[in-house]
Task: structure prediction
Amino acid sequence: MARLTRAEMQGRNRAKVLAAARDEFIERGFRAAKVDSIAERAELTRGAVYSNFPGKRALYFAVLAEDAERVPEEALPPAGETVQEALEAFSRAWLARLPLATDTQRSAGLLGMDLMPEVAADERTRHPYAQLMRLDALVLGLALERLRPPSRGAGRLVGVAEAVLTTLQGASQLAATAPGFVEPFNVIRACGQLAALELDERWQPTHLPYVPPARAADDGWSPLPATDAIHGEPARLRGDGVVAVLGLHRLAAIEEAVRAAPSGADVTAVLVSSAPRELIPLARLTIADFRVCLRQAFPPSTWPRLQIVYDETGALAAAAGVPAVSDATEAAVRIEAGRIVARAEGYGACHAAATAGGRASP
Result:
């Protein structure tokens, strides 16, 4: 038998730790689970567990993310043809994943029961999670905007999406803390009725007049291959458009690029973090759960061109000329004909790069 390489051994050990941790979390719950027990189940040392994951919470996020990303690509039901139908289908898919009142304490259906309490317990996870929900709401709102009839006008529907996600998150919490209380059919109908909600949303960020223009550039652009987490396919990184490197505290800024970019241009959010081994799995989990519902509710023609890519190692950020990243990072580049033609950093960088045509300063 051929000897495993170091990378292959690390991959095998990581898989063993994840499998052992999943069993431990199902059997004991997150709080009672022990890293020593996980190491024993995996037939590895405690040090081997920590060499792959910085702590028990990071391991918990990774287990949930792996499960969410492994949801089978089954034949899909007909997608909604109206905003109301799409919201009802989205809500139905969301609620179908919730634990049942009949689930036992050691059921796999309750594996994610400790997620929200754990996120809420620490500012280091609360702030990124809030931004991840903003990102989900943006994608949902953009899909709603592409589905609505012309008679509804051209206003922004991200606020409606936020109201829907707020309702569904509340239902999720009650399903966990008050089993049997949530009546799914009522929640589905309520979310569908939000399609008629009139919020008079207009895209008018107040800081944009003060954003300096992007700087002109003429640099090579050689990104490594990456997967678009929303569409589940190779990301289009070499086409004309905007690539934004965003820390997990700045994710909402991508809407500025989406709204300002030329029609047909690709807009890509590259997610980075100062704690990637813990927080990128949380991002993977949040977006994977959302994507499952999106697929079951919206026809592919309504999915926004926004791409989301995870950059746990910082390699994509470095290719864009951003060598050091943190959760507060906001930097963006404009790509044309396979080259970086404009750069912007700091507050408003997404808008500056998206509008760089004819505006980039030397």
